[in-house]
Every structure is written in C-alpha cells, then in structure tokens.
Amino acid sequence: MIASLAAALAFLVQTPAPQDGVVVTAAPTSGETVDAQRFREAVAYANPMPRGAPEVDYPLVVWCEALVNGHVALGETLTDADPLDLDIIRLGKLEAADFRGALDAAEPRQTPASRAAARAAAAEATAKWARLAGQDEAVRSQAFGLFFGLPGRCEHAARRIRENITAPPATPADVGLE
Description:
The chain is mainly alpha-helical. 61% of the residues lie in helices and 0% in strands.
C-alpha cells in the first residue's frame, strides 16, 4: 500500500499543473458572439457601482484608467515584486492602454461638462492611490495585493465610447435574465 501511495505521489509531482485560462482585460475574446457580449454588458450595467464611481461612460472610463494607472504605479514601487506582481503590472498597463485608446477616440465628442466630470473622476481615483505613496513597503505591497480590480462596466464603457455607441446598454430583461 505504501508503494502504491508513493507511486501515486510521484505521478502527481511529475504531472504538470493545468494552466490558468486566458485573462480577458478589455476587448471581447475572439469569437465572442454579439449575444454573449450583450449578456455580459447587461450584467455589468445592472450591478451597482462602487461609491464614487461615475455612472456616465466617458467619466467612468477616465476613473477606471486612473485606478489602473495608480495600481500599476504602486506596484512599480515594490522592491520585492514577485512574478505574479510583475504580470499584474504588465496586464494593468495593457488595460490602461485600452482605456486610453477609447478615451482618445471619444474625447472630441465630449461636452465641456463631460470633460469636467472626467477630470473630477480622475482626481478622485488618483487620490485613492496617492495616500499610499509615503507608506512603508509592507503596506504598499498589501494594498497592491488586495486591489480587487475594476467593475465589469469599465470594459463595456470603454468599448461603447470607442465605438460611439449612444443607445442604452442591454438590460437583464433584454437578455432573458428577468
């Protein structure tokens, strides 16, 4: 029996662990159907937003970009960043670039009021990370590791402003959830 357990253990140790799935940071994965995208968008827009998050798409994407950029900047201050931290930083930079592309495409269409709301949203999101700048490494590392990410609405809002989609997003009822 011990030999059987030892053989099983040896097999488990030699068997490579399954790889994690693809991490979707912004754009829909290739092959995603329009219905699947509408479903995800309906769910994202139906969920409540965190306190302080704008409800309007353009200022929301500015807020999301500022949160991601602050998270990346905080991670870059860590002297003991492990490979997972470095990958999170890399993915954050990709996500921020996607937001920036959407914002650049949509900026000419924004009203002065929308631009002002976006500036205020960016300042509010940036301030969340600025408080950590003077903290010791352990506090910064813990804050970096505890960031739970962005609301799902961020990626949809970015797509909507990039593509100049002005129709309201699908609702849960529209996609058969109610």
